[in-house]
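Render this sequence as a predicted structure.
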Amino acid sequence: MDYIAQTMGNLLHQMAFANLTVGNFIMILVACVFLYLAIARDFEPLLLVPIAFGMLLVNIYPDIIASPQETSNGTGGLLWYFFQLDEWSILPSLIFMGVGAMTDFSPLIANPISFLLGAAAQFGIYMAYLLAILFGFSDKAAAAIAIIGGADGPTSIFLAGKLGQSALMGPIAVAAYSYMSLVPIIQPPIMKALTTEEERKIHMKTLRPVSKLEKILFPIIVTVIVCLILPTTAPLVGMLMLGNLFKECGVVRQLKETAENAMMYIVVILLGTSVGASTSAEAFLNASTLKIVVLGLVAFAVATASGILVGKIMCKATHGKINPLIGSAGVSAVPMSARVSQKVGAEADPTNFLLMHAMGPNVAGVIGTAVAAGVFMAIFGV
């Protein structure tokens, strides 16, 4: 009987119920909300499903992301090894390669002025950096938080790892991916508040055709220029442009298909679950996380507004040839922001087609956010 009682006692002690805290139950509820948004509301399910499930796992079984030093047998938890790939900047860089293989830079090449709109949207990042310092964060932590304004999860993770902000990586990544998913909710009110109905109805001229030679030269030229000025951006910009070169050169179809499909989805699974697993109740439920979420929202809202305001200036300068709505796509949430520009424009005039025009600032924003990360790394000598 003693053996049976001891066995049953050991079994009960090993059950998660014996170790869950109120915080764990809160995070489990948050994970379920994220799963609902992803599955029932279709809010970026490819991102939110693995993130939410990783969040669910770590708050039931914390050892799944425990380091080897924290376990009795010296073997780390499964998701700890996944998370090391985040910290080493491997997964974010591979994500960029996949994004490059799926991205058509033709709208940006055909309308280079889109670079200005992509650059304007980065203002939210630098403003959030100053606000984060005022909120009491260190300069490096402030930089890692500020990059959320670009609505670019991989870049947020990349910069947090490079600046040694692993403790904040979970909240930063979840905030960045959450705002990427909520682009259709956050951006339209800002867009409508800052533009008139007449501006939203502006039709833009059809973009000129872009030659194959231009498409091939673009990733090479961008890589050379950006990486010469900011060499630390090479892992992101280099992989983005390599993936795009796979797409445009036409001679490595297998590499292009692998980068945009099999590799991309494998990396999303690894990155999403490991990021979700970094949000244990102890790491996530604190005042710093709330500040990060607020600062990220402010950064994203300011980035959206900055792009629109510069779009309005360009609209005036070109005598109504540019629709200011495409400025909101300057954040690097590709292609969600461009789709939102199209949707809001179509609400004002169903015959208005802005998607391809908005894709120019959108892909420029991807480059711009990577450059902003490179600027911070250069400032701190990383």
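Summary. The two ends are 62 Å apart (CA to CA). Residues 343 and 354 are 9 Å apart (CA to CA).
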